Amino acid sequence: MSRDFLDDRRRALEEAFFAQQSDELIRRLRAADPGRPERDQLAEVSGLRDPALLDRLVSLGIGSGTVAALSIVPLVVVAWADGMMGDRERRAVLDAAHAVGLDAGSDGQALLSRWLSSPPPAELVSAWTDTVHALGTEARGALRHRVMERAVQLAEAKGGLLGLLGGISAPEKAALARLEAALAS
What pTM was estimated for this model as a whole? Predict the structure, then answer.
């Protein structure tokens, strides 16, 4: 058997597993407090007030128990910028996730695992951007430095072409530019 075939099969099985785990996570989150909509719980913990944005976030698996995962979206975007995520990027994303309290066994970590197994949907990046803009100019400015510093560090950690040349690749530079634009005042 071809190694490519086995790698493709492994990847497909992983994606199916994480999709099932994500669906289960969303179901559990919705069942946690059946008397109170998840949108209301998310609004309470996040400070967001736009009902349409809250609904979009909930539909993407971001809820009151997983809102911290939203802070990792920029790193996931940069890690997947070139269409693949290596071990170094995965480790950097997991370290950042641990730093914001997404520890093993948490619902946020389970959601992050899905993002690590396959590129996040464009709708997630769009929802992240809208969330950042909903924070207001002052909060966005404070967030800008921290987010961009971590994203650039992750891009540099990738090591450029095959890890040999160093530097930041063109797709990573484009992803960083999109993040910078989203965070612009």
Answer: 0.75
